[in-house]
Write a structure and sequence with these properties.
The protein is α/β, with parallel strands linked by helices and 447 residues long. The protein is built from 16 helices and 13 strands. Helix 11 packs across helix 12. The relative contact order is 0.16.
Length: 447
């Protein structure tokens, strides 16, 4: 079966989503809007709701472009997902949290708590933060270098997953008559000492109902692919063509044996930006209408942010996209979009338009049958295990997908009609992780 995530921004993926007449435009300030989106995703039997995150308001670009941005405020992910756990029952809850500007003990505690609150439905999207502005809010004058961020991230994840193994599943006795609350032999301090962190542990949150929260990672550079193969259970990725998707999928799966892992432990889910309607012409009209709402200053500012390059407003909109050096920001996304510009011979403004919604992900416009044809091709022909669906505007684009695309997927036997489990790991079909302390014990017994 195909797996689906709902990748939602405050007002929708499209840069002008908030301007749609029926769009949520108080999102980031309205809990009711967030509840509607989460419950719509659950009605569609999505595996999870996924929240990206940044820890800064961009002050780059012109005052005009900044004043037209509809996604400048947002709920802190752990807070909103904890609240949504109370109004959903099956939907997984995946939050982005950076290893660059956090401490592993705090993050491990937050996600373990969300997992307890939700009954085993949490997932952590491990990122190194590609936003230069974030650094300025965390006592730094500039963003750490790309390689340094990844080195820290690997050790960070090692500490977090170790802390999640602090307690055995049967550690808590809670016998009122005997007065024994827990078995101390089933509590495991971590005693981690590394280059970046010293963390004794143990975690003061019990073991996850699903063994541990699902570990998610998104990164398409060579280093990012290695991190995905080494650590991730869900891999988010961005490609614009099937050939790119198949290459990425094969490459990540081919790296797994280096880290003693198998394909059964990892799901690859590229982003999908669907525009769907009962007829192809209606779908194209929907797409064209949102594109018409993009102000030039916003299109340029969002492209600058996406590829980490400044001063694009000094270039002619109808001119070619120039060759640009690698940046210290979102390296893989920069290369993906610049490759697309060269491949399709796009002008600068055409690249702005192409970036305004999909931002380097799969774009599909058409009827439910046409959209599912594309999804089935990727899924059955070796490019993915499912998709992270990116609704253009909320709630309408998500509702369209649930009402039009999900039934067609179900009709073809590609997607569930009911949830299989109560936990995120169970619905994804991912194996229950063995505690590192148990694994060490089993390894010792086998020798």
């Amino acid at each position: 079966m195909m797996h689906l995530g709902a990748f939602v921004h405050e007002t929708g993926q499209h840069v002008a989503a908030w301007r749609h007449p029926e769009a949520h435009f108080h999102s980031g300030a309205s809990f009711a809007d967030a509840v509607e989106v989460a419950q719509t995703a659950e009605r569609g039997k999505f595996d999870f709701l996924f929240l990206a995150d940044t820890a800064a308001v961009s002050l780059s670009g012109t005052p005009e472009s900044r004043g037209r941005m509809g996604k400048v405020v947002k709920f802190e992910p752990m807070t909103i997902l904890s609240a949504l756990a109370a109004v959903t029952k099956h939907l997984g809850l995946v939050a982005t949290s950076t290893t660059t500007f956090n401490e592993p003990y705090t993050l491990a505690r937050q996600f373990a708590s969300l997992d307890q609150i939700s009954g085993g439905r949490s997932g952590w999207n491990l990122v190194t933060s590609n936003n230069e502005d974030d650094a300025l809010n965390y006592s730094l004058e500039q963003h750490p270098a790309h390689a340094d961020r990844y080195e820290r991230a690997i050790e960070f994840a090692e500490v977090v997953t170790g802390l999640w193994d602090s307690w055995d599943e049967d550690a808590f006795i809670r016998d009122k008559d005997s007065g024994v609350f827990f078995d101390p032999s089933k509590l495991h301090p971590l005693h981690h000492k590394g280059k970046h962190f010293q963390v004794r542990g143990p975690l003061n949150v019990g073991r996850s109902p699903q063994g541990r929260p699902v570990l998610v990672q998104a990164g398409a550079s060579g280093t990012g692919r290695d991190v995905a193969a080494r650590l991730a259970e869900l891999v988010f990725t961005a490609q614009t063509t099937f050939e790119q998707g198949k290459e990425f999928y094969g490459d990540v799966m081919g790296r797994l044996p280096r880290y003693g892992r198998s394909p059964a432990e990892v799901l690859v889910m590229p982003g999908l930006y669907p525009v769907v309607a009962p007829t192809a012409s209606e779908a194209q009209e929907k797409y064209d209408y949102l594109q018409s709402l993009i102000h030039p200053s916003v299109g340029l500012a969002v492209l600058e942010h996406t590829i980490g390059v400044h001063d694009l407003d000094k270039l002619p909109l109808d001119g070619p996209v120039p060759v640009m050096p690698d940046t210290n920001g979102p390296l893989s996304r920069q290369r993906l979009l610049l490759d697309q510009a060269r491949r399709d011979n796009l002008t600068l403004w055409e690249l702005c338009l192409a970036n305004a919604g999909p931002r380097g992900h799969v774009l599909t416009i058409g009827t439910p049958s046409q959209v599912v044809d594309e999804m089935e091709h990727w899924f059955k022909d070796g490019a993915c295990d499912g998709f992270n669906v990116m609704p253009a505007w909320l709630p309408g684009s998500l509702t369209d997908f649930v009402d039009l695309v999900i039934p067609e997927l179900q009709r073809r036997g590609l997607f569930r009609t009911e949830y299989e489990a109560m936990t995120l790991r169970g619905n994804l079909g991912l194996p229950q992780p063995i505690s590192r302390f148990h694994a060490d014990r089993f390894a010792g017994a086998a020798q």
